[in-house]
Amino acid sequence: MSVPVAYQGNTSAAIADWLNKGDNAWQLTASTLVGLMSFPGLVVLYGGMAKKKWAVNSAFMAVYAFAAVWICWVTWAYGMSFGEELIPIWGKARPALDQGFLLGRAALPATAHYHADGTLETAMIEPFFPMATVVYFQCVFAAITLILVAGSLLGRMSFTAWMIFVPLWLTFSYTVGAFSVWGGGFLFHWGVIDYCGGYVIHIPAGVAGFTAAYWIGPRARKDRERFPPNSILFTLTGAGLLWMGWAGFNGGGPYAANVDASIAVVNTNIATAASLLVWTCLDIIFFKKPSVVGAVQGMITGLVCITPGAGVVQGWAALVMGVLAGSIPWYTMMVLHKRSKLLQRVDDTLGVIHTHGVAGLLGGVLTGLFAEPTLCALFLPVADSRGAFYGGAAGGAQLGKQIAGALFVIGWNVVVTSIICLAIRLVVPLRMSEEKLEIGDDAVHGEEAYALWGDGELYDDTKHGGSAVAPV
């Protein structure tokens, strides 16, 4: 494909007549903020939350996923998520590498219109920036989803199995959700509201992580009984990157530096602060101590819960969503989990099913309640929508759509993640060997997070590099 005419002969700077520098700068900034949430955000958070002997492995699972998703995304997965429709849940695979494609003006599904004869036509929006910006923005969303899945599997999954799992799950699970909800698929046309990732990112991550954890099996008994964070300060550092980075996560949803982006960012902070405070208060009331890790969990559930409706709910609704985000997932994690045989059987290392699965589902349902008609009109994909709180048959129907859409996403991820895990198990073990489970990072990578070489570790300087000077 040739370079678009708008760029030919423009040797000073690649500025097309349709380019809005402000929108493009904001979208690139938002994309980078989301990328920083993954690397270093979740890399540091996982490295700090994990037991000392698993700090390196936990962080490295996140690093690998971030890199692997990038290559898969530009090679085939972007087209499957946002390309030409193949079937109502999937787009056609195609590379996003050609400069003619990347430099061309972005075009994305906007609203669905039905003709008098019943045929469907999808109106398109054309943001004032190139397709390369959209590829970047959506890639970091795909990457963080895989990294969230990893949070359920820390401390026992074979790294080789994880290397295979990432491209397979991206291809057969993530792309389906992305196309169905955002790329012009059947949930998009049906009118399911997912402002910036509750149905595409958080519910799939929680459900897929829980499902994969079931097939992989639990951590070693000693690790499951005692898995203290090796660094609370690292955990807080990663959490801070998540919270601040979420301004790009939800603020980038409208694909423009507009008023809806501003509303989304403010609502995100309202809900997150409320959720953190409620979670902390519940810890004090029931456990007599304010937990830093608990506060981080509450922060995450607030961020996740507001995401499906960040730009389509009012500030008071964001506050209500934050209070519920800090209490309902708290109950499922701290009370229900201990009483449920199923939840006890499955070893979800960081409780991703609660912080992302439950919180994402809660946010989707509450969006069906609180989506405000005027704000929906600002967000083109759901321009004619309203939540049940605002009355009318349309409001009740919206709530039903939100629930049905969540059920599809949950069912697809349970089935597809199970198939992927069973297929990988035919090739390589899903779990590490018992020896590696006993030793941890040193046995898996030959490295430790806080190591003084010469203390008897398995680190081999000839294989892993390091100082060329022999120790005295």
UniProtKB/TrEMBL annotation:
Domain Ammonium transporter AmtB-like per the UniProt entry, residue ranges: 25-450
Superkingdom assignment:
Eukaryota
Q: Which UniProt keywords apply?
A: Ammonia transport, Membrane, Transmembrane, Transmembrane helix, Transport
Q: Which InterPro entries match?
A: Ammonium/urea_transptr (IPR029020), Ammonium_transpt (IPR001905), NH4_transpt_AmtB-like_dom (IPR024041), RhesusRHD (IPR002229)
Q: How does it sit in the membrane?
A: Multi-pass membrane protein
Gene Ontology terms: biological process: ammonium transmembrane transport
Q: Does the keyword Transmembrane apply?
A: yes
Q: Where in the cell is it found?
A: Cell membrane; Membrane
Question: Membrane: is it a keyword of this entry?
Answer: yes
A single GO molecular-function term is: ammonium channel activity
| Residue ranges of the TM segments | 25-47, 59-78, 134-154, 166-193, 199-217, 229-249, 261-285, 292-310, 316-336, 357-383, 403-428
Q: Which GO terms describe its cellular component?
A: plasma membrane
The free-text function statement in the UniProt record for this protein reads:
Involved in ammonium transport.
Q: Which NCBIfam families does the protein's record reference? A: amt (TIGR00836)
Q: Which family does it belong to?
A: Belongs to the ammonia transporter channel (TC 1.A.11.2) family.
Protein name, per record: Ammonium transporter
**Which organism encodes this protein?**
Brachypodium distachyon (Purple false brome)
